[in-house]
Predict the 3D structure of the following.
Amino acid sequence: MTWNAGTARAHEALRDINLEVRPGEFVVLLGPSGCGKSTLLYLVAGLEAYNLGTLEAFGAAVSGPSPDRSLIFQQTSLLPWLSVWQNVTFGLALRGEPVEARRAAAKEALSRVGLSDAMDKRPDELSGGMRQRVAVARSLTMRPRVLLMDEPFAALDVQTRAKMQDFLLDVWRSSGASVLFVTHGIEEAVALADRVVVVTARPGRIKAIVPVDMPRPRDPFSREAERLRAELTGLLRDEVDRAFAEQEAFA
Ligand SMILES: Nc1ncnc2c1ncn2[C@@H]1O[C@H](COP(=O)(O)OP(=O)(O)O)[C@@H](O)[C@H]1O
Ligand SMILES: [Mg+2]
């Protein structure tokens, strides 16, 4: 994938990406900043057009966004003038669903993220962690088969992030959806993934795919968790150095 292909500003973001996410699988993309992780998610979400290769979701070529594939960003984009429940069912409103059905859907989705009491609040009355849960609830109302998450917890404090990870694992298990989760955090990858895809510095290629064979709930202090963090740290080190050198060269 090359941004601005065919122009003087052509900029190759991804190369030779060959990856298949299985139904119900939790895959984490781990790589240094600028390696193309977000680019890959936008392509899968159908928000950007790819200019090389093929991309399929459930057997059909990806040609644009679909409610099947729901993207959640680091900074949630809740509409401040709408209540929480109206935000949660914004997609359903665009589909023309009647208000009673929307309120019922919001109620169900908000109870799944532990925010039943927040139905009628405004986004600015919520903490950062609560806003991210509202964003997840909003995704769930569309019943996606794939959740695409771009560093969704990066802006949260450590304790809230750990809670959000547990909560996400619950939602994931009960939804049966696949998750493609982007992070640059090694601990987060070990806490969440069935498989960690380590991406090289730009142009992002797959450096290694590391299966995480640990039962859930996971003990972050177990020897296996420690071993995996060491392995991923080793894989990532050179890539972080290379990414850094490139960004210095631009400065
Ligand atoms: N809309 C865009 N237009 C041009 N270049 C972009 C665009 N978005 C990202 N890039 C470039 O593509 C590369 C990968 O970016 P990105 O996917 O955001 O990386 P990451 O999410 O891994 O930090 C970077 O060099 C970035 O500058
Ligand atoms: Mg990014």
